Here is the input.
Amino acid sequence: MSDIINILPDSVANQIAAGEVVDRPASAVKELMENALDAGATEIQLIVKDAGRTLIQVIDNGCGMSDCDARLCFERHATSKIHKADDLFAIHTMGFRGEALASIAAVAQVEMKSRQCDRELGTQIIIEGSEVKDQSPCNCPTGTSISVKNLFFNIPARRNFLKKDSIELNHIEEVFKRVALPNHNVAFSFHHNGRLLYDLKAGNFAQRIAGLFGNNHKERLYHIEEQTEPVKIFGYVGKAEYARRVRGEQYLFVNGRFIKHIGLSAAIEKAYSELIPEHTYPAYFVLMEVDPQKLDVNIHPTKTEVRFIDEHIIFAILRAATKKALGQFSLATELEFNPSTEIDFTPAAKGYMPPEPKVTYNPDYNPFSERRTTGGEHNSSLRFSPQPTERVKMAEYEHFFDTTPKEPDVSQLPLAGESAAVPSTTTNTASPINYLSKYIITTLKSGIVIIDQQRAHERILYERLLAERAKGNAPAQQLLFPVNCIFNPADSELLTEIMPDLEQLGFIISALGENTFVVTATPVDVKEDELQSLLEQTICDYKGNMMQKFADRDKSICLSLARQMAAKSGTALKPEEMQQIIADLFCCQAPNISPSGKRTMFIIGEQELNEKLK
Here is the structure.
């Protein structure tokens, strides 16, 4: 029998390795930016076209490479960070595997220019599919510029699996944030299709958070800091009232490396127990320093998972530090991102006496006069009629309203997804009860019904928004004063994308530039003081829903708005509000199921009550 085992060619082996390291454009961005940091760069530029499909370029002002190093860096297992096995347990750099550039070059067309500071000329190397096409001297600035063109050009199947540009760009932006956040002493810029998305100057950690997520975060964060032997903790945790339903702004770093660790994330979230509603998650930006010998980062190809020797100790310290920050700063002033110690105060001249305030008025003015008042500087243009207008009798219009409470007949309630006609009603004189400010309890001819007020209101608003979206004539309330909302560059692009959908639901939004939008009208159920957070959560939910392949854009936006506009559990409702929810709920197509698929009501029939009370 002939031999069947063969040694794979280098080109095939590199493509297999690339599948572990580079699975989408964001993976290549991560590797290139981390290499720039390891090169000691203080300025890093990221340039992307078509969400990374056409071009990914990273330019840094680091130490650069020699002619020989420029050629060797594209070989597998070529690295300057590891020399012996013991070095794996004392890693102080971002990259160390030596597979990043080799994997990228195996699935793309790569052009690199690099020059060291002590050399007049640099070197240029062009590689396509692991094959070196050219290497020659070139004139270039100190540092390195790497351009990755036509990613996955030789693997059409992998390229076809990429999602649409908005989703791939979102992944790239997330990688950019994970790299830029802990390296706040490095300047970063990010261009996409010729548009500048981020321009971050070197500064402190708080300023970097503001540059990435917006200046409004200065009102939403508490400072956290703890210095212990096992771990040093520094950063910011979000206020409880700004917790969200999705794990969006949660960033945990160890020795400058972004990590995903279920235990440490739980330590922070447990500190918020009894402070935030169930199934909501706080924001946090936490930097941790741990002895590299007590840390193993070599357990995953993307290096986002780590193991600690003193995991339980670090868990307890992190949780205690978070609880301390929440308690210590809950009554403190807002976080100051740009502190200034300068005081501009000019003392008054010696002997200066400020003038007394003067008030001018018309002594002849009488607001109760039946004739128009004249004379003086403040003339009144009001004219009071000597005969008061007769009050309108409301009894004449009572026949337009039927205030008798109605009871819906739930004997023929539809299942989820089935259509329903408006149910028949019978008189019901019993007022509903708002039990625990969470449940609505009322009586029907078929028994007692217990309704979850938040889920029921979500169902009502969801179907109403979908119907208004389909008609395109949603009612809107004009705001007395326009509201300016500021977002980070990534969210600004998403808001611009979904702005036509929001306008069909009753919003009137205009872009002012510099990631600022003005809102002049909203749907009738939106509170003006919650407008900024409502739009932020809508963008966050839309971003998460669009990650799903078959997500419905219209439904995801309507669902997000319905969740935020619904009456929350813990809100005391008036009897007329409860009656309205009951009436509107039984007019829905699927009244017994919330938009999230949970039950909205529970009916206890007379027979069941009799059995329980035997």
